[in-house]
């Protein structure tokens, strides 16, 4: 399996409390499968943690977010057409056999000003907002209903200060947050912009 090196903290810099409490994932918007569409997520230790392989066309109607062993964790389906288009995300559970069950988790809809609104299944209204979701930029933020930033995505930067390509991103989330939720949002954003 592929492995990248985690960022080493510079000895001369003292990280702020905010940076120390965050956890970073590297998201490479390329599939590890030759001629496949998808993305690969590297954990803080530099090893492959998750992957998405879409063997169909870019922006397919259904993709699966898998762990490194190939077990589906999340199923993402595109529903509706035009302005009524939405992405429904379900958690996948395995009962020990090849049977797989999916429970609805959250829905993503386009919102005004190039953003997206995230609503949890069974919840009332919007829970999160993805700012800059429908814009062709690599940097965007996920905010809660009160406007506080709960996750950030930016282009990956090496310790020497070199900014990597548009397809190598860093997702920064707090350690107490559900990391799978925010990783799922990165995949949905890739589907919205047809980069997967």
TrEMBL record:
Pfam family, one: LOR
InterPro entries documented for this protein: LOR (IPR007612), LOR_sf (IPR038595), Tubby-like_C (IPR025659)
Signal peptide per UniProt: none
Family membership: Belongs to the LOR family.
UniProt name for this protein: Protein LURP-one-related 11
């Amino acid at each position: 399996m592929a492995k990248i090196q985690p960022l080493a903290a510079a000895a001369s810099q003292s990280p702020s409390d905010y940076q120390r409490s965050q956890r970073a994932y590297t998201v490479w918007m390329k599939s590890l499968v030759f001629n496949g569409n998808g993305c690969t997520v590297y954990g803080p230790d530099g090893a492959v943690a998750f992957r998405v392989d879409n063997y169909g066309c870019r922006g397919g109607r259904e993709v699966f977010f898998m762990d490194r062993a190939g077990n589906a964790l999340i199923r993402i389906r595109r529903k509706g057409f035009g302005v009524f288009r939405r992405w429904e995300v379900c958690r996948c559970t395995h009962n020990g056999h090849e049977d797989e069950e999916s429970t609805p988790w959250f829905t993503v809809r386009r919102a005004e000003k190039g953003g997206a609104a995230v609503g949890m299944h069974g919840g009332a209204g919007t829970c999160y907002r993805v700012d800059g979701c429908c814009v062709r930029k690599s940097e965007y933020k996920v905010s809660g209903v009160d406007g506080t930033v709960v996750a950030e995505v930016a282009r990956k930067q090496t310790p020497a200060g070199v900014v990597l390509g548009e397809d190598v991103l860093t997702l920064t989330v707090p350690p107490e947050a559900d990391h799978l939720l925010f990783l799922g949002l990165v995949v949905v954003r890739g589907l919205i912009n047809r980069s997967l």
